[in-house]
Design a protein that fits this description.
The complex is a heterodimer of chains A (254) and B (500).
Chain A (H helix, E strand, L loop, with lengths): L7 E3 L2 H4 L3 E2 L13 E3 L5 H5 L4 E6 L4 E7 L23 H5 L2 E6 L4 E7 L5 E2 L4 E2 L1 E2 L2 E2 L1 H29 L3 E9 L6 E9 L9 H9 L2 H11 L2 H12 L6 E6 L5
Antiparallel strand pairs in A: 1-7, 2-8, 2-9, 3-5, 4-5, 4-13, 6-7, 10-11, 12-13, 12-14
Chain B lengths: L4 E5 L2 H14 L4 E6 L15 H8 L4 H4 L6 E3 L1 E5 L9 E5 L6 H15 L13 H7 L2 E5 L10 E3 L2 H14 L3 E4 L2 E6 L5 E6 L9 E4 L6 H6 L4 E3 L8 E8 L9 E7 L2 E7 L3 E8 L6 H12 L9 E5 L3 E3 L3 E2 L2 E3 L5 E2 L7 H15 L4 H31 L7 H8 L5 H11 L5 H9 L7 H10 L16 H16 E3 H8 L1
Parallel strand pairs in B: 1-2, 1-11, 2-8, 4-14, 11-20
Antiparallel strand pairs in B: 3-7, 4-5, 6-22, 9-10, 12-18, 13-16, 13-17, 14-15, 15-16, 18-21, 19-20
Helix pairs in contact in B: 1-6, 1-9, 9-10, 12-13
Classes of the chains: A alpha+beta (254), B alpha+beta (500).
């Protein structure tokens, strides 16, 4: 699965003083957004709507916990023609888009970043980032919102690290029939490796309980059922093709 | 259009390969080869690249005809142990490629690009290529089924015997041969070669002279003064010591040259049907010939045995600038030499000859233009090979000797190589391939070979070298290659035995 090409740059007046950010009302801009990173805190809301997969976060050398909105790249099955969102929940990161945060190692402070490739970034429409070379009220407000989710972000990264270190991730592929002669395979998706549960130490099992990781783990596992919903939505929206899908999870002992 | 009379000065592999190709391409040409009984050939040089297969095909020589005569075996690639000390990357195999590698190869590129951007994949090249398994399983690159696929492979052989084989064939086809020493080379007033003075025979003159006199370069360098450009500023090895070791006739054969890094250089191990060829290529600025011989003996586990033949050689590493100069073409060691780390010497001989045959013209004016273009092309090829060899040294991670440190820290590298190595370190995944495309023809090595050497040497950021158990693509690729080779390819020893 190809990730959206994101280019986050630390915001500074010199490089970004002409940039504006379009408002989030209406979701037309999300029509081609196929997935979104999510925080561990929101897993239960996400599981009720979308499949969750770990996607490779190449430059960080680890995985990103993500909600999937479509099967094919650039496909979002939850935005209708009117631009309305048809799920019951929108992941927090989509509201924050195009902003992000990065920890500046030197000053140990969080710096606000902007994804210059985001469909929300424009030179002509929307809220200005800088007014008279100063940070705009809009930007100041975004900064505050971002700071409140810093902790959520740290906790999510911690969960992912704990899972990776204990071999608790494994690859899965989805094989889609009906789009072309050969089944199309989407791979490089990762989910919970349930085979490894029996190797966890008692201490780890308790620690997972104390950190609420078991809820996250089961939520992620359960969310795989939402792939059926994606197939259903796809078939409903595309009158000229009926697809079927199988999931294959990589197991040590198949 | 062809030269009416050609003299080839010197025998050896270069001389007889020249005779074979020129005789084949210009059958109307009167060709004479003059070789000395007193001057030996370099005597080693036993591995090839896949191009040599075309050489034999062109001449209509079947493998059955030449391989048993030359104690030859197949070669699917080169193994490089101990150049890197990065855990998990202590050895890698540079395979010859195949159309069968298409899917696993694509996966290798994807994983390597992610890994060099920081993701802990396992893009060690050994998992992804058929040729690695062919060598590892002691198979020949010969398949059971008659499936339609392309599989590159080369050979190991006794170079001395190959020269004899080619000589017999050339003489049978009417090539003239003079056994004599060349004592002098005379030029005319235009600075061209007028004639060669020999010891026992008359002066010999021709329209075209091929200089295969080895490092002496009697005609091209000593007479025509083609400038010699040394490569010693980034290739430090200038000597070798060679020792042959026995092999039992029943033992299995691995279709691979092994090039093991040692303290101040590297040792080759080449399997023939009847013996191994071994040699230590080293730098005399760092160890002496005696020390090198001792180290090789230890490496070969033969201690102080004195019934082994030991040959010490000095090598002149570099190239001339004018390979086709006036009415002379230099082929082989006379035109230059790069240490045999990627077995490129005969590839250069073949390329020099084939390109020359294609470009040759009797029209004097046109010839000057073509000579210039030709020499640029040959020089570019030399430099392209040089860059790839230098990469082995630049990416080494040993710290056990001053030699390896100097190799790694050496900044006398070409602009092309510098740009490539920088591009590999760039976290943007496409920059490296863009740079390769930009450099286009300057490297005789394709994208796959560049990815193999950089990934094989463990050139990944620190964070990308940790183990990630969720990533299993490499295991699946290896399983596919292993199983495919197990059921599709024939045993190497058995195939060669049946060839005789």
């Amino acid at each position: 699965m190809e990730h959206i090409k994101e280019t986050f740059e630390v915001i500074d007046e010199a490089s970004h003083n002409k940039l504006r950010v379009k408002s989030h009302s209406g979701c037309n801009h999300l029509k081609a957004v196929n997935n979104s990173p999510i925080f561990a805190e929101e897993i239960s809301e996400v599981t009720a709507n979308f499949p969750i997969a770990f996607l490779k976060d190449v430059s960080k050398g680890t995985f990103k916990l993500s909600a999937l909105f479509g099967l094919m790249p650039d496909e979002n099955l939850f935005v209708n023609e009117k631009g309305d969102w048809s799920g019951t929940y929108i992941p927090v990161a989509l509201n924050l888009d195009p902003f992000g945060l990065v920890l500046d190692a030197q000053s140990d402070a969080n710096r606000i970043t902007i994804n210059v490739n985001s469909p929300y970034v424009s030179k002509t429409e929307g809220e200005m980032l800088f007014v008279n070379q100063q940070e705009s009220p809009y930007l100041a407000n975004m900064r505050e919102q971002l700071n409140t989710i810093v902790d959520a972000s740290i906790q999510t990264d911690k969960l992912i690290a704990e899972l990776v270190n204990r071999n608790l991730l494994t690859e899965f592929k989805i094989s889609i029939e009906g789009l072309s002669e050969e089944p199309q395979v989407i791979d490089d998706l990762y989910t919970i490796n349930t085979d490894e549960f029996s190797y966890l130490s008692k201490e780890d099992v308790i620690m997972f309980h104390e950190m609420n990781y078991w809820g996250a783990i089961y939520g992620i596992q359960q969310s795989l059922k939402q792939f059926k919903k994606l197939v259903q939505l796809s078939n409903a929206q595309k009158s000229n093709s009926k697809i079927k899908m199988t999931i294959h999870i990589d197991r040590e002992n198949p | 259009m062809f030269p009416k009379k050609i003299i080839i000065a010197g025998g050896g592999t270069a001389g007889w390969m020249s005779a074979s190709l020129l005789q084949h391409s210009w059958p109307e040409s009167d060709i004479v080869l003059i070789e000395s009984e007193n001057i030996g050939t370099i005597g080693v040089g036993e591995g090839s690249t896949p191009g040599l297969r075309n050489f034999f095909k062109t001449l209509n020589i079947s493998e059955q005809e030449w391989m048993p005569f030359c104690n030859a075996t197949f070669k699917s690639g080169i193994e490089f142990p101990n150049w890197s000390v990065t855990p998990g990357y202590e050895s890698y195999f540079h395979p010859f490629f195949s159309s069968l590698d298409s899917d696993t190869g694509k996966l290798f590129f994807k994983l390597a690009k992610e890994q060099k951007s920081g993701f802990p994949n396992n893009a060690h090249p050994d998992h992804f290529f058929i040729s690695k398994q062919i060598a590892y399983q002691n198979k020949a690159p010969k398949s059971l089924n008659t499936q339609n696929f392309r599989l590159d492979y080369g050979y190991h052989f006794d170079a001395g015997l190959l020269a004899i084989f080619l000589k017999k064939r050339c003489l049978n086809l009417g090539l003239k041969h003079i056994s004599d020493d060349i004592t002098d080379v005379k030029m005319n007033e235009f600075g061209e070669i007028k004639e060669l003075i020999t010891n026992k025979n008359n002066a010999q003159s021709a329209d075209l002279y091929i200089d295969c006199t080895g490092f002496r370069a009697l005609i091209i360098q000593q007479t025509l003064k083609s400038e010699f450009i040394s490569f010693s500023d980034n290739l430090f090895n200038d000597r070798a010591v060679a020792i042959q070791t026995p092999k039992t006739m029943q033992s299995s054969i691995r279709a691979s040259t092994k090039s093991t890094a040692l303290s101040n250089g590297w040792a080759w191990e080449i399997p023939l049907t009847n013996r191994y060829g071994n040699g230590y290529v080293y730098s005399s600025s760092f160890i002496s010939p005696d020390q090198a011989e001792q180290e090789l003996r230890t490496h070969l586990n033969i201690g102080d045995k004195d019934d082994v033949k030991v040959r010490h050689l000095a090598m002149k590493i570099g190239r001339i600038d004018k390979h086709w100069n006036k009415n002379c073409l230099a082929v082989g060691l006379s035109q230059g030499f790069i240490e045999p780390l990627e077995a490129t010497a005969l590839m250069l001989v073949q390329f020099t000859l084939e390109t020359f045959i294609e470009q040759y013209t009797v029209n004097q004016q046109e010839q000057i233009k073509r000579q210039f273009q030709y020499n640029s092309r040959i020089n570019m090829t030399f430099e392209g090979i040089r860059d790839y060899i230098v990469t082995h040294y630049k990416t080494n991670s040993r710290s056990d000797s001053e030699y390896w440190l100097k190799c790694r820290e050496n900044n006398n590298i070409s602009n092309n190589l510098s740009a490539l190595l920088d591009a590999w370190k760039n976290p943007n995944p496409n920059v490296f391939e863009d740079e390769l495309n930009k450099q286009g023809d300057s490297s005789p090595y394709l994208r796959a070979s560049w990815f193999v050497i950089l990934a094989g040497m463990g050139q990944f950021p620190h964070q990308a070298l940790v183990k990630n158990n969720a990533i299993k693509h490499h295991q699946r690729a290896q399983k596919h290659c292993t199983e495919f080779v197990e059921k599709s390819f024939l045993d190497h020893r058995q195939y060669l035995d049946e060839m005789k």
